[in-house]
Amino acid sequence: MGRRSDHSRAELEALILEEGHRHMAEVGFARFSAREVAKRIGYAVGTLYNVFGSYDLLVAAINTRTFEQWAQHLENRLADPSSDRIATLVAGYFSFASEQMNLWTAIYDHRLPAGMAMPDALAQRRGALTDVIVREIAAILPDEHLGEAQRLARSLVATVHGHCAFALNGSFALLGETDPLGMATARVKEALVAAGARF
Amino acid sequence: MGRRSDHSRAELEALILEEGHRHMAEVGFARFSAREVAKRIGYAVGTLYNVFGSYDLLVAAINTRTFEQWAQHLENRLADPSSDRIATLVAGYFSFASEQMNLWTAIYDHRLPAGMAMPDALAQRRGALTDVIVREIAAILPDEHLGEAQRLARSLVATVHGHCAFALNGSFALLGETDPLGMATARVKEALVAAGARF
DNA sequence: CCATTAATTGAACGGTGAGCAATTAAAAAA
DNA sequence: TTTTTTAATTGCTCACCGTTCAATTAATGG
After folding, report:
1. Nearest CA among B49, B50, B48, B43 for reference residue B3
2. Residue ranges covered by each domain of chain B
3. B145 CB inside 7 Å of strand D
């Protein structure tokens, strides 16, 4: 069993998060278990509660880490020089979700208890993902429509999210759709053209 | 306790479904419990397993009922004469989801165990929802593009779904967006215009 | 009225998140 | 160094969960 001299509070928090994230990736939200995470790192269940306060805050922290990896995934894709950064973004959204399906679905499967708001620090870190998209949209909008970049970006993320969700949960397959990514990209480009973007 | 003379097999199935649907609406997927449903109708847990086979098939049946109510909700909205049937559809999608949030989210929260396909009978009944949208899209597409109606409809449902999901899970609110319905409608109309629809 | 058949039960099993008194180790004081 | 104080860590307890299945109970056919 773990002893306090083994890890500082910060190290322990990182250890739990690391193993929790791994466990979530392996078994998904429905089978995720705080007890199992505790067992794997050799600490007792109660320790996780001392460090994170509750099951929900632990899951929220794990999912926030996923958001950050997701944003990094997009940046990596964009770093590869390409003539079509928008298509790269949409494809990056899809590829992260499908390569890390358990982590990605956990983000939307988990909901904080009624009345409990997402802690500010976590909300802030999650925002980094949207920031990437806002930046790329703003870069191709004409100056006179720059003010709409943020709202448009949010809407396009929602558009891609819908297609990605249906692709991964089998809705599209059930209806015979074979190219969800192509559809999502088409919808995004139509909206950008309508907003006057040049690319 | 329930006795077999009280209900035929078909009546029992309807009874479980009715109470299960009510319970899902009240507490949502995360707190849904087959034991609780059994207690409420005065039968033992095992009886639900005899009738539905497993927890997952029970939930799938409950969610299928939700799909049907959702399709009916759209038809009711469309029955009210309106000059803008597309806007009515998008608004109907949103209003059902927000009025029946627990039922709506349960549809996407639940996933069948790996390797288990949705029973054909249930998949068929769920399809009725998409059929409504395909019909309405086909009605406004020019004849030479009628063949695209089905694919386009699927994509537009995904678009609206993404906006609706973000509206209900708080993502939009967190980013300061106040009109998800307006955004979704705008995206849908852009895509329809691009496809040559007249309305 | 009995024998057969089938529906229904509920205890048992191995899990879960949560709370918390007891324990144990580190830190501070003597 | 030894003792006291403080705080981290434990793991038992509780009330649940889905699932299984031997035993029971009721309806049916002879």
Report:
1. B43
2. 1-53, 60-194
3. no
